[in-house]
Amino acid sequence: MRQGRDLEDYYQQVLAQGGVLNKQQTADRFGVSEKTIQRDLDTLRNYFADSEPRREILYNSAKGGYLLDDTRFRRFLTSSEILAVCKILLESRSMVKEEMFPILDKLVQVCTPLDRLNQVKDLISNERFHYVEPQHGRRFIQSLWDIGTAVENHNLMEITYCRTHDGETRVRTVEPVGILFSEYYFYLAAFIEGIDKDKHFQNPQDNSPTIYRIDRIQNYKTLDRHFAQRYTNRFQEGEMTQGNVTAQYMTGRLYAELSYNVPAGKWYTKAAEQECPEAQYELGVCYEAGDGVGKDEAKAAGLYRKAAVQGYAEAQNKLGECYDYGSGVAVDENEAEKWYQKAAENGNETAMLTLADKLFVDGSLDDTDEKMQKAAMWYQRACGTGKHERTVRMGRLLL
Q1: Cis status of the peptide bond prior to 53, with omega within 30 of 0
Q2: What span, in angstroms and rounded, lies between the C-alpha atoms of 56 and 38?
Q3: Cα–Cα distances in Å, from 162 out to 137, 150, 151, 396?
Q4: 333 Cα distance to chain centroid
Q5: Span between the terminal Cα atoms of the chain, in Å
């Protein structure tokens, strides 16, 4: 600046605080010419244009002076913002190069000011060169849009899915409720239409959506049929961080299925703190085994109890086992039988078999005929799944 620190401070004070700088009044105040003020304004104009946040000095005829304005730069990302977004995309390793690189090019070209375009390109060039594609090698960007549209419009979809654990292909009609991203992959969360939970689900009481890796959906078709929302507040992909207990539990289950036990425990904890019985049960399993959290059988038993008193059959059976074997609590046969009974009455097949075995083997009741009648009743109920183990045990009573 030409007129010392006082003049420079005045410029900053007036402009930076949203004031209007009148050239003639400023020249008179400091005893300099208007040309001097104009030269200083030109210098300031370059300074503000190169600083973050980027702004420019404009003349406002209505206000009779110069002021700072950021309107022209609002559509641009700052250099640090564009660099951060590009690095996040590259580090995600979520897409093949044919889909990732065009997105990066458009992002940089459209959002970066021209005078910083080459600098931003240079900063991401090395990571771009060493970019590692996902192993599946499939394009799926269009799928994301089609699935997202079906989610928004509540359209049923028919998908052909290749399962991750055995490579088998399944065709399902599903109600898509959200798209998630985690650890390199995009996932579809959906409810299966017309599925026999007792036959196909390990836990028939689990009311959460099924998770599908989108890159493993080989074919899909949006149907001209609609489904009703399952929640009062519909599942939203971003709700797991905003207190939606169903989304939190589902996120925990997603991580668990991927064997990421630490984040699974974190999300189960969030949902369990909101009294979600499914999450309390799963978190109890984590503490009992020491998966993703420190092994703590007493804490596991406490979590099973919280879920059990809410009527969750899996937890009732587990709590019965805790009392049966002294896991986290003192052995108590009466408590064990009480919780096995509750679980069996709520449809838990493991509890049915346990009760039947105890009646058949332990001789814990007074009347032998009554024992056998009850054992037969529980074996029969458990036998309804058609599993070989149930049939064999039922056969004991027919020999």
Answers
A1: yes
A2: 14
A3: 15, 21, 21, 40
A4: 41
A5: 105
Q: Read off the DSSP letter of residue 360.
A: I
Return the amino acid letter for 64.
G
Tokens of 307: 């879920």
Q: d(Cα 297, Cα 305) in Å, to the nearest integer?
A: 12
d(CA 259, CA 211): 14
Phi, psi (degrees; rounded to nearest 5) at 184: 85, -10
CA distance 396 to 399: 6
Of 157, 87, 164, which Cα lies nearest the Cα of 126? Answer: 87
The amino acid that residue 67 corresponds to is: L
- State the burial class of residue 355 (Cβ atoms within 10 Å of its Cβ: 0-12, 13-18, 19+): buried
Tens of pLDDT, residue by residue over 83-130, are 889 888 998 889 999 999 999 998 888 777 677 788 888 888 888 888
Helical axes 277-289 vs 245-257, angle rounded to 10°: 30
Q: What Cα–Cα distance (Å) separates residue 194 from each residue in 168, 198, 312?
A: 20, 12, 23
The torsion angle over the Cα atoms of residues 100, 101, 103 and 104, rounded to 10 degrees, is: 120
Q: Do 164 and 216 meet the contact criterion of CB atoms below 8 Å apart? A: yes
Q: How far apart are CA 24 and CA 1, in angstroms?
A: 17
User: What does the block give as tokens for 162?
Assistant: 């290749």
Instruction: Provide the residue count of the chain.
Output: 399
pLDDT digits (tens, 9 = 90+) for 275-324: 999 999 999 999 999 988 999 999 999 999 999 999 999 999 999 999 99
